[in-house]
Each structure stands twice: as C-alpha cells, then as structure tokens.
Amino acid sequence: MISFQQVEKHYGEFHVLKNINLEISQGEVVVVIGPSGSGKSTLLRCINRLEAITSGQLTVNGVQVNDGKTDINKLRRNIGMVFQHFNLYPHMKVLDNITLAPMKVLGISKKEAEETAMYYLNKVGIADKADRHPSQLSGGQQQRVAIARGLAMKPQIMLFDEPTSALDPEMVGEVLDVMKTLAQEGMTMVVVTHEMGFAKEVSDRVVFMDKGQIMEVSPPEQFFSNPREERAQLFLNRVL
Ligand code: ADP
Ligand code: MG
C-alpha cells in the first residue's frame, strides 16, 4: 500500500532521509521510533506529500506520490493525518470541525456529513461534546476530535505524528485506546510515537530511525527483547 524505494530527501544542503526502503501492507500498523531529529516526521510527511522527496520512488496504492501528474488532493483524501498539536479550528464547534472537509472536499450534504461526524465522535467516545468549541475540551478530548475528523474522510491510511506528546500523562491512555481500536479494525497506520507500550502491544513492525536512516525494522517482540542494532539498544536504554 505504501512503498519507499531508495528514497532520498534533502532540505537544502541537509540530507534528512537516506536510502529509505520500506513496504507497508494494507492493514499493517507500523510504529516509527528514534531520536529527535532522526527524520521521523519527514518520513511521514512525504507519504501525503507535505514534503517532496529528492530522489527514489514513493508510491501509495501504486500511484507515484511525486509524479507531477498525480492528483495530490485525491491522494490526500485517502490519507488522514493526526499531529502532535491537534490543529483544530478554534472558532468552530467540534461538529463543524469534522464536517468541513467532507462537505467541501467530498461534496457530501450537511446532513450526511453531520451523521458521519456523530458516528465518529461516538466512536472516539465524545459525542456529547459535538456542540462545544475546542478550547472547552481537554487535550485528550481535542486529540480524539482530531482523530474523528481524520476518519470522517474515510481514509485508507492514517498517519500519526506523536499524537500523545503534547498531552498531560493522564490523557495519553484515552487517545492510545482509540488508536488501538482503529488498529484492531484493520486500519493501515503509520505511527510516530515515544509510547513504547503502544509499540509493543499494537504494532506489527517497529521501524527504528537514526540520523535519516532506517537502522532496523523488526516485529516488536524481537525489537524490544533483542534489537539487532547497537544504536537501537542505546535508544531503548534511554527511553525504557
Ligand atoms: P524527527 O521527527 O525525527 O524529530 P524531523 O523529520 O522533524 O525529525 O527532522 C529531521 C531533521 O530535519 C532535523 O534536523 C530538522 O531540524 C530538519 N528539518 C525538519 N524540517 C525541516 C525544514 N522544513 N527545513 C530544514 N530542515 C528541516
Ligand atoms: Mg517529529
């Protein structure tokens, strides 16, 4: 579903992604970990072309992400993204935050968009907050709204960039629970996180990055008990 082949990316002179090769199948949950600055966010952002690669091949469902002929909006419709800072529209009610894109981009009616929004708000456990504004919600609730907003576009892939890093510790679990449910329902997910418990319990594979390279790709049982790379071992010693 997602394929990186010999992908390189530079920011000006800075070589941020080096020879990235990675294949992600439908329904797979891949957790990306590694030190700050190792290129995790950049890797994720290349998938929906928030960043362009410098060379190599990157395809989503067989479509070349960086081909000038590719319809970027169509590509992005199929890929939901959840950020560390929830990026909700502060002046809009929760419900309107969720219905905006489906109405504007998919062209569905307000009634249908609201029904869909309520379905997903219910799914993330905050249907009672539909008429509130984001500032009236806790961080964990806001992040669940952001997830519902992504899901309302009915994407095939969900990308998460440190979705719990900005949350107070007591709210991390409620967001991870929603993500776990999504994973169990078969969503294809790429998750950058420092939550090693989530990686262990939910992921199919762990990708360890360092200095722009993928150093190791292993099933979580193997990665956490016996990482092949010394740098992965050192990283785990610091975070566990
Ligand atoms: P991570 O998410 O693993 O912390 P990032 O992908 O955000 O890493 O960043 C990797 C490196 O690229 C960092 O050194 C960062 O400073 C640099 N970088 C990120 N975005 C840009 C940008 N838009 N322009 C220049 N350098 C950037
Ligand atoms: Mg990052």
- How do the strands line up in the largest sheet? 6-7-8-3-9-10
Bound molecules: adenosine-5'-diphosphate, magnesium ion
Described by the principal axes of the CA atoms, the overall outline is: globular
Order of helices and strands: EEEHEEHEHHHEHEHEEHH
| Biggest pleated-sheet summary | 6 strands, mixed
Share of helical residues: 25-40%
Strand composition percent: 25-35%
The beta-strand count equals: 10
What is the CA-atom radius of gyration, in angstroms? 18 Å
- Helices, by number, come to 9
Q: Give the distance, in angstroms, between the N- and C-terminal Cα atoms.
A: 31 Å
Describe this structure in a few short sentences:
The protein has 240 residues and is α/β, with parallel strands linked by helices. It has helices at residues 40-47, 72-77, 94-105, 110-123, 139-151, 169-184, 196-202, 220-225, 230-239; strands at residues 2-11, 14-24, 29-33, 55-60, 63-64, 79-82, 157-161, 188-192, 205-210, 213-218. The protein has a domain at 85-154.
